[in-house]
């Protein structure tokens, strides 16, 4: 049973590779996707009748190794097709799933680095490509991508510096405008007006000065009702209660 599934999955992998080389990425994805249908549901163990409630079919260690490689090819090759078609988020997801099976898979790491670089995640791309070079120091593609990444880092730093410089210029201009507005809002004779309403008293026994604040005169329109002319006094009888 497992051998038949593995054979069919290998056939689909070859079909997908042929379509990919021909530039038929959608057809290649169809073939790669079907690989998983044939290798899903197996687990390493003795080839014995399944236990009640068992959800996977046991296979030998050699068969499990083949199944693992086919699952890895399924995810990694799907990621490459998605990259070719510009589906970066899906490509990244498939790369990460491949790396869950094999964290040191060079192809999946390199392709995930491409995904990160495509969306501007430069630090993540750098980490993936450096991991590739740790396992394969002569990997020309990773070396080339890292060299290109250096220029992108330099360009990014220049843009950030310009952005922050412009931000500081705006803040400085705003502070200058606020200071000029505050100065314009202050009446020019405010101090003179306050001085005219102060009375200074000097002490004869010392040099201490006491300042008494006298309220300013009321405005002409705030004098209240005018006082009427005096009225003559007319006495009246007052009757007290009996």
Structure overview:
- Helix content is 63%, strand content 7%.
- With 242 residues, the protein is mostly helical.
- The relative contact order is 0.05.
Q: Given the structure, what is the number of helices? A: 8
Average pLDDT, rounded to a whole number, is 77
Output the structural class: mainly alpha
Number of DSSP strand runs: 4
Gyration radius (Cα, Å) is 44 Å
The stretches of 5 or more residues where confidence is low (pLDDT under 50) are 193-208
How helical, in percent, are the residues? 55-70%
Q: What topology, given as strand order, has the largest sheet?
A: 1-2
Q: Which sheet architecture does the biggest sheet show?
A: 2 strands, parallel
Strand content: 5-15%
Quote the distance from N terminus to C terminus.
132 Å
Q: Helix and strand succession?
A: HHEEHHHHHHEE
Query: Tell me, what's the shape?
Result: elongated
Brief rundown of the structure:
With about 240 residues, the protein is mainly alpha-helical. Helix content is about 65%, strand content about 5%.
Properties at a glance:
63% helix, mainly alpha, 242 residues, 8 helices, two-stranded antiparallel ribbon, two-stranded parallel ribbon
Present the secondary structure layout.
Blueprint: H1 2-21, H2 25-39, E1 42-44, E2 57-59, H3 61-84, H4 88-101, H5 106-118, H6 122-135, H7 140-185, H8 190-196, E3 198-202, E4 209-213
Parallel strand pairs: 1-2
Antiparallel strand pairs: 3-4
């Amino acid at each position: 049973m497992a051998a038949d599934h593995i054979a069919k999955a290998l056939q689909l992998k070859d079909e997908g590779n042929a379509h990919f080389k021909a530039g038929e990425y959608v057809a290649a994805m169809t073939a790669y996707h079907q690989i998983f249908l044939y290798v899903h549901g197996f687990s390493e163990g003795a080839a014995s009748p399944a236990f009640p409630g068992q959800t996977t079919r046991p296979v030998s260690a050699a068969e499990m190794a083949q199944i693992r490689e086919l699952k890895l090819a399924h995810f990694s090759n799907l990621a490459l097709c998605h990259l070719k078609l510009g589906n970066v988020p899906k490509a990244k997801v498939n790369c990460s799933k491949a790396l869950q099976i094999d964290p040191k898979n060079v192809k999946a790491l390199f392709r995930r680095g491409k995904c990160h670089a495509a969306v501007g995640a430069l630090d993540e791309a750098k980490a993936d490509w450096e991991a590739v070079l740790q396992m394969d120091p002569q990997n020309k593609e990773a070396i080339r991508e890292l060299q290109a990444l250096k220029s992108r880092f330099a360009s990014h730093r220049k843009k950030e510096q310009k952005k922050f410089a412009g931000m500081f210029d705006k803040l400085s201009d705003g502070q200058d405008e606020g200071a000029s507005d505050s100065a314009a809002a202050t009446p020019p004779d405010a101090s003179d007006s306050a001085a005219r309403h102060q009375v200074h008293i000097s002490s004869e026994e010392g040099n201490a000065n006491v300042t008494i604040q006298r309220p300013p005169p009321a405005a002409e329109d705030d004098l209240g009702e005018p006082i009427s002319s005096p009225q003559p006094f007319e006495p009246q009888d007052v009757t007290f209660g009996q």
